[in-house]
């Protein structure tokens, strides 16, 4: 059976172009990187690199398995983040109520990076009228309200669980 560590070494060799460069980046001995790759190849019964030249070249099997290895490592990272989030009781969902007059590509381009920055948090955006946006927050349906109570004045309300505005 292969390990996450072997997959990490495999991806590192591919990204850095050699066993020695991967070893430097992973703070390991070059022999340890070579051994991890050999053990991975034995575990999956596939040759991942052609070793005929000075720099390792991916075999057809290696090329086919590389994107899957990256995906597995990404999922492992996501899993670890979710476990950490649950253990530390972090927020898992954020509902943002947005005044329908404010919905635009510009607003979405501002909010979209949140999903990248906080990949384990589910973001929900609810659009409603100005008065309903405030009501959604007061009723604790949403945690944040973006609305325009006066012309050319955008307000942001962030409520804590007891319903008092933070600002």
Q: Can you give a write-up of this model?
A:
- The protein is 51% helix and 19% strand.
- The chain has 167 residues and is an alpha/beta fold.
- The strands form 2 sheets. It has a 4-stranded mixed β-sheet with strand order 4-3-5-6. A two-stranded antiparallel sheet has the order 1-2.
- Helix 1 (4-16) packs across helix 2 (19-26), helix 1 packs across helix 3 (30-44) and helix 1 crosses helix 4.
- The chain starts with a helix and ends in a 9-residue tail after the last strand.
The H-and-E topology, N to C, reads as HHHEEHEHEHEE
Quaternary structure of the protein: single chain
β-strand number: 6
Q: How large is the count of helical segments?
A: 6
Q: What gap, in angstroms, lies between the N and C termini?
A: 53 Å
* Approximate strand percentage: 15-25%
pLDDT averaged over residues: 85
Biggest sheet: strands side by side, in what order? 4-3-5-6
Structural class: alpha/beta
Tell me about the biggest sheet?
A: 4 strands, mixed
Shape: elongated
- Gyration radius, in Å: 24 Å
Low-pLDDT ranges: 160-167
- Estimate the helix proportion, in percent: 40-55%
């Amino acid at each position: 059976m292969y390990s996450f560590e072997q997959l990490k070494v495999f991806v590192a060799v591919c990204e850095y172009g050699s066993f020695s460069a991967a070893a430097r980046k992973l703070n390991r001995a070059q022999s340890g990187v070579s051994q991890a790759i050999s053990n991975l190849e034995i575990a999956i019964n596939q040759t991942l690199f052609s070793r005929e030249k000075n720099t390792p070249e991916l075999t057809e099997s290696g090329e086919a398995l590389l994107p899957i290895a990256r995906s597995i490592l990404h999922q492992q990272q996501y899993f670890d983040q979710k476990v950490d989030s649950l253990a530390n009781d972090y927020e898992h969902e954020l509902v943002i109520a947005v005044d329908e007059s404010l919905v635009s590509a510009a607003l979405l381009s501002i909010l979209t990076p949140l999903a990248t920055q906080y990949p384990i948090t589910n973001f929900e955006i609810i659009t409603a009228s100005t008065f309903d946006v405030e009501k959604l927050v007061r009723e604790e349906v949403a945690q944040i309200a973006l609305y325009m109570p006066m012309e050319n004045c955008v307000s942001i309300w962030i409520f804590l669980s007891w319903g008092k505005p933070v600002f």
